[in-house]
Amino acid sequence: MTLNLVPFVSVDNMMKLVLHLGIERVLVDLAAEIEADFRRWPQFDKTPRIASHSDVGVIELMPTSDGETYGFKYVNGHPGNMKKGLQTVTAFGLLADVETGYPLLLSEMTILTALRTAATSAMAAKWLAPKTPTMALIGNGAQAEFQALAFKAICGISEVRLYDLNPQATAKCARNLAGRGLTVTPCRSAEEAILGAGIITTVTADKTNATILTDNMVGSGVHINGVGGDCPGKTELARDILLRSAIFVEYPPQTRIEGEIQQLDPDHPVTELWQVIAGEVPGRSDPAQVTLFDSVGFAIEDFSALRYIRSQLGQSGFCEPLDMIADPDDPRDLFGMILRAM
Amino acid sequence: MTLNLVPFVSVDNMMKLVLHLGIERVLVDLAAEIEADFRRWPQFDKTPRIASHSDVGVIELMPTSDGETYGFKYVNGHPGNMKKGLQTVTAFGLLADVETGYPLLLSEMTILTALRTAATSAMAAKWLAPKTPTMALIGNGAQAEFQALAFKAICGISEVRLYDLNPQATAKCARNLAGRGLTVTPCRSAEEAILGAGIITTVTADKTNATILTDNMVGSGVHINGVGGDCPGKTELARDILLRSAIFVEYPPQTRIEGEIQQLDPDHPVTELWQVIAGEVPGRSDPAQVTLFDSVGFAIEDFSALRYIRSQLGQSGFCEPLDMIADPDDPRDLFGMILRAM
After folding, report:
1. What gap in Å lies between CA A171 and CA A186, rounded to an integer?
2. Which of A95, A333, B102, B335 is deepest in the core (most CB within 10 A)?
3. pLDDT, tens digit (0-9, with 9 covering 90-100), for B308-337
4. Cα–chain-centroid distance for residue B137?
5. In terms of domains, do A283 and A309 share one?
6. Is A265 annotated in the active site?
7. With contacts defined as CB-CB under 8 Å, which chain A residues touch B339?
8. Catalytic residue of the set A164, A230, A294, A302
9. Are A95 and A234 found together in one domain?
10. What's the mean per-residue pLDDT of chain A?
11. What is the domain count for chain B?
12. Which portions of this protein are annotated as coiled-coil regions (chains A, B) (predicted)?
């Protein structure tokens, strides 16, 4: 492929590629890629995402670079979209060669973000959660099935207990998970869902300071995978839970603005997950400890995911060339190239 | 077109669209769009571009929004690319709907950036430069012809005097401009090029603190269109010229880092061009004054350019649909959509 043609992975090709590889294998591979990149965290250029907020949502750019490859993701978050029949979150992303600045890959990332978010959650739980066969899954929307399968494939979860304010969402989730080797238990309340669960995943969509979990619902020794508290004014956990949890985050300057810890003082102690993975600090230090992964999603996870997709393209045909970069024979002669298009 | 399909303007279609409309008409239209957006400057979300620097170049994201439409550009700057037969600057950009976060347009922007940069230069000169038939054009690379035609179409320039360290670049530029209604005068030195020129455009590519113009070369009453001093460590003008010029800039927080004024104290007075256009402050105040447009390129110019291209697409066929946004029938059922792709 010549340099001016950028491989593009459409939504259709992403679905076909994921099915070709197998969803659980993709989740396991993504978790390994993300873990490897978290282990070399200091090598990356890091910046909080660049957000453009409006009354109804946010549009964000999430760039990072490891000095050889540059990547960024475009992603929106519009909680009101669902009522219009649209996705709350849509995304696409790009990889480029740092040496030349030329793009290497353009890809849909709505699906890929759902996969990498679940893979990151399960990878973090591998380091932080107690051994448990059971996960509560509160919020059964677009992200739910990905979370369930990631925790099955990466953490050995065998039962998921589902709850959503909307019973239709729970029914949809249970239907999609049927026959995939998980015991799926729909529940009528959050309290019922967390019964016996060593891991509690919260992944609800409302842009509000909600209280999905109250303090008395969270017993000792539990791991909370907090996914849905991910932008200013959007949290899911009672503040008291945070005060008695060991809190692990991706990139503190971003999580302090967007995560559950926006409810806490700006100097409240948190641990960076990469330091646990790199062996610099301990993860769970006590079976009775409540651990919280306050996940908001960081650019390096998207970078890992895009690099993984690129590595799997090969001769697969799951991409198409996009005529995106003007590349005149004489680089000084951009004007002449236009004239010759006549 | 359904929402999941994003109109994409390829390099090929951009060339065809520009030729279909006519290059000078596009330059005039772009200058008008950019001027209109500069006039409503306070309505925009503004941020200095987000740069990822390496030893060999920079990759940047340039977002902005007017509250209804969001836009961003990806652009690289790699001065060493030319020796590899690659473009120094390549770019693409996107418009999105602030209400939903869904993309509205994806477009190549290597060509469009060249056009909007020239249109912005000429639009600024319309407000700042003396009446003059003659422009010196120092630096005859990929941007040169666009500058020449923009100043012809927008400022009434009838003679361009060309100089480049590389005579082949000058020859290329003269060849491309032949027969377009301009008197084109190749010169053997920068000194010769500026003879009688009321406007001096500097648009060289080296990433270095160069001195393309020394102080004694710039006579009173001249307008300098400084285009090539556009990133940290890359300037073209002797500092003494800046000290006796009235300096006009796009967005001071960005220009202080990237423009000619990186050579000056951070509180050296500059005027924002939009304030001149909005009638808030005067432009040129004296025929003897040296005016400098210290141009680095700002996100709003790309926003204006993308909106213009979108407005010209209509039923033209100069775009193709890109399957970029996952859009399941039930927005909660992203997982089910993947399964159904089987």
Report:
1. 8
2. B335
3. 999 999 877 899 999 999 888 888 899 999
4. 16
5. no
6. no
7. 19, 176
8. A230
9. no
10. 94
11. 2
12. none
